[in-house]
Amino acid sequence: MKYSNFIFIYTIIFFSCTQSESDNKKSTDSETLSIEEGWVRPGNAGMMSAAYFTIHNNVSVDDTLQSISSNASSDIQIHESYDQEDSMKGMRHIGIIPIPANSTIELKPGRMHVMIIQPSFDLIAGDSVSFTLEFSNFGKLEIDLPVR
């Protein structure tokens, strides 16, 4: 009886420790890829919004952010802002983001960002939005970003 209690307690402790790692980090041995400083711009359902975050690739190989999906919309796109010839800003769909080994990539207003096309619900400050990021080497990473 005491042995089964020990196994039960050990199992609970083991799974508690493995699940306590940040939801925005995924580890392979000592190398990690993490998403930090993320947030979503508030917006109304059916309109447009954007998400911003920083990708830290502490892995010794290049990777690529291939796609992003979200509970907020069925249409999530990776975009970048650029300077047009007439001194105006433009925005274009870029599809993927190359992430060199041991680098940091910032998605922020006026630069690369994630477009949330016609969200299915209002994005209200204080709420959060779930995203699944799919990397070519690292695989899937699920994150929740606050609306602010």
Structure description:
The protein is mainly beta and about 150 residues long. It contains one helix and eleven strands. The strands form two sheets. Strands 1, 2, 3, 5, 6, 8 and 9 form a seven-stranded antiparallel sheet that branches. Strands 7-4-10-11 form a four-stranded antiparallel sheet, with no helix packed on it. Strand 10 (about 130-135) and strand 11 (about 140-145) form a beta hairpin. The termini are far apart. Residues about 5-25 and about 25-30 have low confidence and may be disordered.
Descriptive terms for the model:
globular, mainly beta, 11 strands, 1 helix, 51% strand, disordered N terminus, 7-stranded antiparallel sheet, 4-stranded antiparallel sheet, 12% helix, 148 residues
